[in-house]
Design goal:
signal; alpha+beta; single chain; two-stranded antiparallel sheet
Amino acid sequence: MKKKKFFAPLVGALVLGLSAYAGYRTYDAYNVVSESDLLLANAEALANNNESTPAFKREEGECVINVGAKGKIKLFGGTILEADAKGNISFTGKVVCIGQGDVSCRPIECIDLYEVILN
C-alpha cells in the first residue's frame, strides 16, 4: 500500500510534466514566422532605390490657348491672363517627361493649369 501512495503522485507528476512539454512544443511549432522566398525578394526590391524609380528628363513647354478676343483665363496660382489681339494666351507651365534622364517626373498638361473666365 505504501508503494501505491508513493508511485501515484510520481506518475501524476510525470504525466503532468510530459503534457506540459508536449503542449509547449506544439505551441512553439505553430508560433514560428516563416517568410517565403517571394516575400524576401519583394523586400529586397523595395530596399534597392536604383531600380524603384524610373529616370526621366524633365522639359517645360509652352501652353497656347485660344479663348477668343477679350478672353481671359485664371491660372491655378491666381494670376489672370488676357488674350492678345488674335484671341490667344500663352504661358509656360506644361511639363513633358522624356525617357533616359536622371530624375523622376510627372507630366503636366496645359488643361491642368488654368480655368477660363467668362465675361
